[in-house]
Amino acid sequence: MKNNFDKLYNYSIQPSEQVWKEIEYSLDNKKKKSILWLWSIPALISIIGFGYWIYNKNHSTPKAQSTIQLINNNTTELNKFEKKNNLIVTKKFIKQSESQKVIINKNKVQLNTKKNATIQAIKISSPKKYLQTKLSVEEHNNIVKQELAISEVIDNNLINKNSNHYAMVQTSELEKNDTLKIIHDKTNIKITSKEEIANKSLLENGGLNDTLQQPLLPQKIIQKITWSAVWGGGLNYLSRKNIFGEDETMKTFNTLSSSTTTGVTNNSNAYISLPKTGAHFSVGVNVDYNISKKISLKTGLRYRYLENKLALIADTTPIYPGYYLTGNQILYINYSNQFELPFNVNYHINPSDKIKISIIGGVNLTWVFKDNWLVAYNFLNRYQPLLYQNKRLLFGLQTGLSVNYNNKFSLSLLALKNMTPVQKTGAKYYWQQLDMQLSIPFKTSKK
Amino acid sequence: METQQLVKACIKNDRQAQKALYSKYASIMLGVCYRYTKSLPDAEDILQEGFIKVFNNLKQFKNEGDLGAWIRRIIVNTTLTYLEKHNRYKREMNLDDIALHPVANEEVEVNLNLKDLVEYIRKLPVNYQTIFNLVAVEGYNHLEVAALLKTNVNTVRSQYSRARSLLMKQITEENNLCLNKIN
After folding, report:
1. What is the mean pLDDT of chain B?
2. Residue A66 backbone dihedrals phi, psi, to 5 degrees
3. Does B52 touch chain A (CB under 8 A)?
4. Residues 282-321 of A with CB under 8 A from B
5. B96–A contact, CB cutoff 8 A
6. How many helices and strands, by DSSP H and E, does chain A display?
7. If you average pLDDT over residues A386-404, what whole number do you get?
8. What is the reported pLDDT for A398?
């Protein structure tokens, strides 16, 4: 009979031709998949870059875009500019009426000019080019409301109390010959349409080389969003749970074999067959949306790499009942590549002006896209590739604490408990993770 | 073409070489898959999946050992993953020492052809079938089998013993039945 078993080792059956055809098809597809995979990295970088660009587009100070230009029938000399604090301040407007300056304080628009002076066109640029999108048709029909609309859209963060700044009236949203009444000066400004400005070749004359641009997102939302780069690292722990109660395997699960100095262990053969502890690091982008001073929402995209190992001194040869020789080692290794998508709610506490402490709670979606669980035997000099491979979506609960210093960086300690098992072999195995994260905003802003 | 050259060509995605490698080992590997499964289509599915893994991981083969043995390990692992994944096998894959089959201790000498023996093995419950194949045919020791199946050595020992006994019992009963018919 034993001979028969040995012969079975070489027992063979001719497969159908269809098998090779399907292998061939899969190999062709695999090539395409691997090419797609190569593209996913630059695609991810592009997404991050695009996000950064959107942020910069709406938050950064243009290099030389802050201009003011008043066109008067009597204009004889064009503007001259000088760079000051990242703003181009008009030194001289119009030769015949040098006193004409539009000054925007926190919430007021002033035009220091002769009363009832009529100006055909006004373009005032500020670092935030989209400030004027608030002006609506309905509003500009009412002169007073229109003025209020301007004051509303000025970003207080950009107003330096001790200096004059210039904001832009977006002429495209106003109609030709509309008038804007500035209450304080009681001065009328005649608005010229954007097309008319272009017709007057103002671009050639300088000062209007900055076209008006609409933001991609409503300004209110953009102002509340903070993008930051995040790096993290920490520990993983694999816990086992048998929802149907304790079974024989469960009983032996936590009684790991322990070798003695004599190399003999009295534990029959219990060991854990999965890597139980390990470490990970992550890198990605966080997006914070501030609902109020106290509460914000956090999401983002992070790449996480896990590596878990478990070396076991396993029993093999019985000496007498219940006692076994030890010395053979099995190494279980898990390499995992994941993308994480957190959805957290942060509650902020401000113990001082510069420090903000946040309590974090939420959920975490993890896409395990490349995950290998391997077994290596040192005593047999064998390596078993591809023992298991998991590709799955994990759902987890996340909580933690974060400390933010002056909006320059924040340090978070997060605990994640996955509710979806990573492995189901009789019992279920769940990852728990402890993660320390450092995040730095792409651009710091004042509170 | 020598094995080393064949492997190199396969790594370079040379389709002719890949087909040559497949042709060389496919029938014996299908024999492996067939012994672990209950149907030929399942065995062919595993063979297909296994060979895709072989071609995708051929870089890991260091030309030190026997290529056939290396491929066989991957095929066996693929088979185990398949059994674990598919419900019709998973349901039967009870590796706890409960609901055990009766043990017959006596060794039986019966003349069987290889095909019949394979069919007897395939009639065993999935857990016995798997452990029996791993231990008696592939030559894994109990510890290795325990690691592969993520269970403990005692379970493997007892289940292997019972699988062997059950197989003997089935063979004996069938043979007695045949003898009775002849008589």
Report:
1. 81
2. -85, 100
3. yes
4. 314-316
5. yes
6. 8, 21
7. 81
8. 93
Tokens for A326, please give them: 């030890």
Residues A48-57: pLDDT tens digits? 887 777 776 6
ipTM of the complex: 0.82
Quote helix, strand, coil % in chain B, to nearest 5: 75, 0, 25
Set of chain B residues whose Cβ sits within 8 Å of the Cβ of A5: 117, 136-137
Over residues A217-254, the pLDDT tens digits come to: 666 677 788 889 999 999 988 776 654 444 444 343 33
**Is the CB of A8 less than 8 angstroms away from the CB of B121?**
yes
Considering CB atoms only, which of B13, B43, B51 is closest to A23? B51
Sequence letter at residue A193: S
What distance in Å separates the CA atoms of residue B136 and residue A22, rounded to the nearest whole number?
A: 32
Contact A376, A421 (CB under 8 A): no
Contact B47 A20 (CB under 8 A): no
Instruction: Answer for the pair A302, A284: CB distance below 8 angstroms, yes or no.
Output: yes
Q: For tokens 């090539």, what's the residue?
A: A31
Six token digits for residue A253 = 């699960």
Contact A259, A313 (CB under 8 A): yes
Residues B183 and B171: their CA atoms lie apart, in Å, by 18
Taking CB atoms and an 8 Å cut-off, how many pairs form between chains A and B? 146
Q: Is the dihedral of CA A295, A299, A302, A308 positive or negative?
A: positive
B48 in A contact zone (CB under 8 Å): yes
Quick: pLDDT tens for B111-157.
Answer: 567 888 888 888 888 888 999 999 888 888 888 888 788 777 888 88
Q: What's the per-residue H, E or C state across A341-385? A: EEEEEEEEECCCCCEEEEEEEEEEEEEEEEEEEEEEECCCCEEEE
Of B55, B81, B95, the CB nearest to A388: B81
What is the C-alpha to C-alpha distance for residues A228 and A439, in angstroms, rounded to an integer?
6
The pTM is what? Answer: 0.43
